[in-house]
Specification:
CATH class of the largest domain: Mainly Beta
Shape: elongated
Number of helices: 2
Number of strands: 27
Largest sheet: 7 strands, antiparallel
Oligomer: single chain
Strand content: 35-45%
Number of domains: 2
Order of helices and strands: EEEEEEEEEEEEEEEEEHEEEEEEEEEEH
Structural class: mainly beta
Strand order of the largest sheet: 3-4-27-18-23-24-25
């Protein structure tokens, strides 16, 4: 395997292993791979990663304005007092909003102009006082959903609803005197039939913000030595480890032409190089940020081999080198349609690397 430089905080074309052509907005991401912990500030260029690994979700626009400061007039308060005095989900002082009910069924709402479609409303929220119901709406209160499992620590909570036109999002505190701290309210239009929020948060004020995806790309057009694209064009072995909220459709490796490692229907995994495609058993890939996946394989002499999470090693013939491939992406693709919706914890690739079946099983167990 080949080691190399992957600096934080910039996207300089200096021969590093991956560059990120799409991450152009500062964000806040979890430090832990299961999505927990005080959010970490990540800059507006370079691969979006924390100590957990590299975070991968598609690009979405956050339609909620002033999503940390609910004292702003963009939010309508009824029987609720809003105060910007809470420690934020990222640990910053006076960054999140205290919502305290001064009467029963106090509400905080924001009207948003948006064409009809599926929406996801999410927020980081924790209890400050009381134990009554806290509800969410995206249709102006025509329906409310009670949040479950609230504690005195921030958690990402969300609801989703189809066919909503011009949503009015809202929070309802049912019991007078109860209070909650709220941070990073998001309203997005989801994609890829994945009606969940991004783990990557962005802050808004007076304008919506496009929360761009992070796309680690190995591109032949970048500065030498072009290590990973050169390796992937010939015989190679790889190891991928990560967690994904998505099964079918997730792309662990996405080449521009004929190199793909993908999760397909029934959560099987395929590894395709040219005309050779090895496919794991169904349900080999585990879904959820609390589930670690380990995938390893190699391509050599026209044969591809693949092992997923210590399962049976599968192989196929007909593999051919993709010598003209100009780039490949890790854990997503350019459009985000193959995003894993999760975190890549480790990735390795080596030229001419091969493994015995026993080694593949040991690597992925």
């Amino acid at each position: 395997m080949f080691g190399g430089s992957q600096p934080y905080g910039n996207n300089t074309n200096d021969g590093r292993l991956f560059r990120d052509p799409t991450n152009v907005v500062a964000s806040f991401c979890p430090p832990n791979a299961d999505g927990t912990g005080t959010l970490v500030s990540v800059g507006s260029s370079g691969i979006r990663r924390t100590t957990a690994g590299q975070w991968a979700y598609p690009s979405f626009t956050n339609r909620c304005l002033w999503n940390r400061d609910l004292t702003n007039a963009a939010w309508t308060k009824t029987n609720v007092t809003a105060t910007l005095n809470q420690t934020g989900a990222n640990g910053s002082n006076n960054a999140a909003t205290l919502l305290a009910a001064t009467g029963a069924n106090g509400t905080v709402t924001q009207a948003i102009t948006l064409a009809s479609g599926q929406v996801v409303l999410s927020l980081d929220i924790k209890r400050v006082s009381g134990s009554g119901n806290i509800d969410l709406t995206v249709d102006g209160g025509a329906s409310w959903t009670t949040i479950t499992g609230l504690t005195t620590s921030y958690q990402l909570k969300y609801i989703t609803q189809a066919a909503v036109t011009n949503p009015t999002v809202g929070i309802r505190i049912v019991t007078s005197g109860d209070s909650v701290a709220v941070d990073f309210v998001h309203l997005i239009t989801p994609a890829n039939s994945m009606n969940i929020p991004k783990q990557e948060r962005v802050a808004t004020t007076s304008s919506t913000v496009l929360n761009s995806q992070s796309r680690p790309s190995a591109d032949i057009a970048d500065a030498a030595p072009n290590t990973l694209i050169t390796i992937a064009r010939g015989p190679h072995g790889f190891y991928w480890q990560g967690r994904s909220e998505r099964g079918n459709g997730a792309g662990l490796i996405t080449g521009a032409t004929n190199l793909f490692c993908s999760v397909i229907a029934n959560n099987a995994v395929t590894y395709a190089v040219g005309g050779g495609t090895a496919q794991s058993a169904d349900n080999a890939f585990k879904v959820g940020l609390n589930q670690v996946n380990k995938v390893a394989g190699f391509q050599s002499g026209g044969t591809v081999k693949l092992c997923v999470n210590g399962g049976a090693v599968v192989s196929a013939s007909g593999a051919t080198n993709d010598a003209a491939m100009d780039h490949w992406d890790l854990s997503t693709n350019g459009a985000g349609s193959r995003s894993i919706y999760g975190v890549t914890e480790a990735f390795k690739m080596g030229a001419n690397a091969t493994f015995t079946d026993a080694e593949l099983i040991a690597m992925t167990t």
